[in-house]
Design brief:
The protein is built from 5 helices and no strands. It is mainly α and 175 residues long.
């Protein structure tokens, strides 16, 4: 199963953001005096689990899109099964991290992939809104358009072609 380049790029951003937030978390633990190797290992385990879960989500969605249109029910069932399996995976990661390592660092780090996605979505919407605003500002408004190019709204007679006396349009025949 091959992921789209855009999916791979998004997964890369999620992984990078998760690792950056994990580093900040460990720095905060260190600054507050709560740093232990167990805090580091719990954070690393939880970050890796969150990144793997996002990868599995991308694979599941890509695979569900490959189903034929007549198998929509099967695709939905597959996504539900995938969701259940991914949540069980995260539960197992959390259980190991809470039992063997620092529970606080493990529980905090597991939300980082979702946090990165929320921030990406918000920034993407903000960029899209500013891009559409700037492109709308470049287009001329109704008052800036040339008034002579506007078609007549009605009521005005067509005077572009005068009718010759005795023509078929006039209704009289002089011949």
């Amino acid at each position: 199963m091959k992921l789209n380049p855009s999916d791979r790029r998004e997964l890369g951003w999620v992984a990078l953001g998760t690792l950056a937030l994990t580093a900040v978390e460990i720095g905060v633990f260190f600054a507050l005096g709560y740093y232990t190797p167990k805090a580091l290992y719990g954070a690393i385990l939880s970050a890796a689990g969150g990144i793997v879960e996002m990868f599995l989500l991308a694979v599941a969605v890509t695979r569900a899109h490959s189903y034929p249109p007549e198998a929509q029910a099967a695709a939905k069932g597959f996504l539900k099964l995938s969701y259940f399996a991914r949540m069980m995976f995260l539960l197992a990661v959390l259980a190991v991290g809470v039992i063997l390592f620092n529970p606080v660092s493990t529980l905090i780090t597991i939300i980082f992939p979702r946090t990165v996605i929320i921030v990406q979505t918000a920034v993407g919407k903000q960029k899209a809104a500013s891009a559409s605003f700037s492109s709308a500002a470049d287009e001329p408004t109704e008052t800036e358009t040339d008034e002579t190019d506007a078609p007549d709204e009605g009521g005005a007679e067509d005077i572009s072609e005068p009718e010759a006396k005795g023509s078929e349009k006039d209704g009289t025949d002089e011949n």
